[in-house]
Amino acid sequence: MISGFPARRREILQDNFRRLQATIVDDMWKARYIVISDTIQSLSAVAKRLQVSEEQLQRHLDDNTDVRCVYPQWVDSCIAANCLTIPGRNNYHTIYTVKRNRDENDDNENDSRKKTAKNNSNITTKPKRNKFPRNLDVASKFSALSKLHKTMPLLEDDHWKSYQFRLVAGRIANLNFEVDTDFVTQKRLRSITGFGESVCEKIQECLSDYGTIRRIQEFENDNDRNKMKNIIDIWGVGRVGALNLINQGCKTIHDVRRKICNNELSLDRNQLVGVDCYEDIQYRMDRSEVESLAEIVRLAAEKLFPGIQVFIMGSYRRGKESCGDVDIHLTHPTDPTFAKTIPNDALGRIIGEFFSFSINSNHTN
Q1: Distance between CA 257 and CA 253 in Å, rounded?
Q2: What digits encode the pLDDT tens for the residues 88-113?
Q3: Domains annotated on the chain, with CATH
Q4: What are the tens digits of pLDDT across the range 342-365?
Q5: How would you classify the pairing of strands 328-331 and 309-312?
Q6: Which DSSP string do the residues of 93-127 spell out, in sequence order?
Q7: pTM of this prediction?
Q8: Beta strands at 33-36 and 68-70: parallel, antiparallel or unpaired
């Protein structure tokens, strides 16, 4: 029984099963294996496709413990073995936990878990998935590559590649199977959205003796990429602006400052602030400094909007020991229409009050 696939994919699976001399049935009640698409994540969706109620399907699976709900990659593993094999743990579809024959200790353990679950029926918890160390190592390489594309964006598509590799890193870290170079695993990886030939080749690089992605070292040794990193770190300068500065002979912040002093460059106000505060912006603050800055903002905001609340967000809220900037969320504890009624120029007024507060504080000190 095959469910949840486009017509062409279904034909391929059926052909593969016939090669293994398996019988394909359209009657769900006669099926021993129900092959379900990776994209289907709920039992109700399967029941809808099979045109039965979820309760009927659930009862059928509970009463017939020999019926298996499996991923399509089980077929690939059978093809590789050239015979129908018993599905492994990673082949069972997550929409339904298959009952297996267990020894008495396992049964007792399950009974204990059921009692605990019953006693805590009002508490909803999501089970944690055990992550594979090898997957985490490969994911870290893709995270590093994503960061390099973001901080050294020499080409137009670097921003997109940074985003793509960041998604790949997250998906690899959360896979429910371990990455490997064998045919079955590689085919399984290629079935995941975003895992094309290029991504799978990079995964194989990480798993080979090389142990990393070659592009990482290529970026680190690329002079043009390093120039871009130095210049794009200037606040207010984007990729196009950085390329323009590089084409004018700027390799570092010192080159930019020298040309400004010699009237050889014309930058806008934001870019000049970025040049002037370059080192300060690169500096990471500890948590106490973030709290001090947030308090200054709170005092300035509360003077204009009494009762306003300030919450520190971003890396501070995530518990980081140091922060590159301060992300602040402003809200009101009792006014539900605060976001709608606050003036459009509120941010500008708060910033103006903030500078006024800073000047007065410095004068007092």
Answers
A1: 6
A2: 666 677 666 544 343 334 444 455 55
A3: 2-99 (3.40.50.10190), 133-220 (1.10.150.110), 223-282 (1.10.150.20), 285-364 (3.30.460.10)
A4: 888 888 888 888 666 555 555 444
A5: antiparallel
A6: -TTS-------HHHHHHHHHHHHHHHHTTT---PP
A7: 0.54
A8: parallel
